[in-house]
Amino acid sequence: MKRKVISLLLVIVIMSSLLLAGCGSKTTGGVDKSQPIRIGGITSLSGALQDYGQQNQRGFMLGLEYATKGTMEVAGRKIEVIWEDTTTVPDVARERAIKLLDQDKVDILVGPASSSDAAAILELAEEFKKVIVLEPAAADFLTGPSWNRYTFRTGRNSAQDANAVANVIVTGKPGAKVATLAPDSAYGRSMVEPAVNSLKNNGAELIHQEFPPAETTDFTPYILRIREARPDYLIVIWAGANNPWGQLMELNLEQYGIQITAGVAEIAALKMMQPMIGMHGYTLYYNSVPQNPVNDWLVEKHKEKYGQVPDIFVSGGMASAIAIVTALEKTGGNADAEELIKTMRGMEFDSPTGKRYFREEDHQAIQVLYEIILTEVEGVDHPVPKLVREIPAEDIAPPITVPADAKR
């Protein structure tokens, strides 16, 4: 009788232990719900692209708040974000990424602002078998020749920008003759090349190019040569305080039948474009352009927290956070890279500019851009982009340039 009682007690103890162990780990479908999902945010919190990185950080955290309805958890797992500063130096970016992956054991990386920083860490995502979500680094090669299967990009790439400007031009004038003005730098030439290719593919004719030194302050000779070439459109690609906008207006290209067009980026750049009121161009984002509930929430919440409207890279950060939460909801909180890759390929997700999806072949987000006209608004210290039309996502989808032998 005593043996039966002892045996019964042992069974009860063992079953209780198992139950307690199960409750403690909260394991569901092989996922330990008691462990947080760790996201490594790696971006420029100082250095040349500090403003981009800080905007992106704000947007990412707001995106998590939006996508999780304020709980900061997904599928029963808490979300932790560990931020590291690349200082906009590729060697530092690599060092900080190793720290996040090896010491902090993050499940997912997101960032960075600089394409050079991104190039320095892509192979680490593959080495550690962790998904990296690129935002806002835009260089084409990141989802092209340098791509690996762990790389997803929520932002647009340079080829989408090029396709957008070509779309604006050929919509306005099919078969247009086009000139370009860009700095004689790696940045300038890398931005012009895809634009030129896109123009040719869309039936426009490139007739003239000018590449002033990046430090140029007197653009007169370059603009006069463009004026003599008599293109229908001039594409301007420039970044920096020594910009050509004022001189372009002084030399009155419109009188010669030349329309100027350009991409419109962050508010700081818009402030330098005061002479360009009335210009048609394109943009990825301006706070009053997209009309959808996600952007409405972002504008209201950003004003509430920071006392100002969100800028372009805030929008991008929010998009990347929503994409990650959407994927984790679909996997039931499983942050394993193989599960995420399988889930994210072809996955649609919300953003402040509407629905986007990851193209299966290269994990590049396909998304709309906007044709806009720059307008003057009383009380605003910069030209305000006004929506002309949405440029359909499929019309500006970039070419697939992933190597044929890349592991899928």
In short:
Belongs to the leucine-binding protein family. The chain has two domains: 197 residues, Response regulator (Rossmann fold); 125 residues, Response regulator (Rossmann fold, 3-Layer(aba) Sandwich).
Account of the 3D structure:
Residues 1-21 form the signal peptide. With 408 residues, the protein is of the alpha/beta class. The protein has two domains: 37-156 and 291-367, 3-Layer(aba) Sandwich (Rossmann fold), CATH 3.40.50; 159-283, Response regulator (Rossmann fold, 3-Layer(aba) Sandwich), CATH 3.40.50.2300. Helix content is 40%, strand content 19%. The strands form five sheets. It has a six-stranded mixed sheet, sandwiched between helices. α2 packs across α10 and α5 (158-172) packs across α6 (186-201). The longest helix is centred in the N-terminal third of the chain and has 24 residues, at 2-25.
Quote the distance from N terminus to C terminus.
64 Å
Kindly report the name of the CATH homologous superfamily of the largest domain. Response regulator
User: What is the number of strand segments?
Assistant: 19
Q: Give the class from helix and strand content and strand pairing.
A: alpha/beta
CATH topology of the largest domain: Rossmann fold
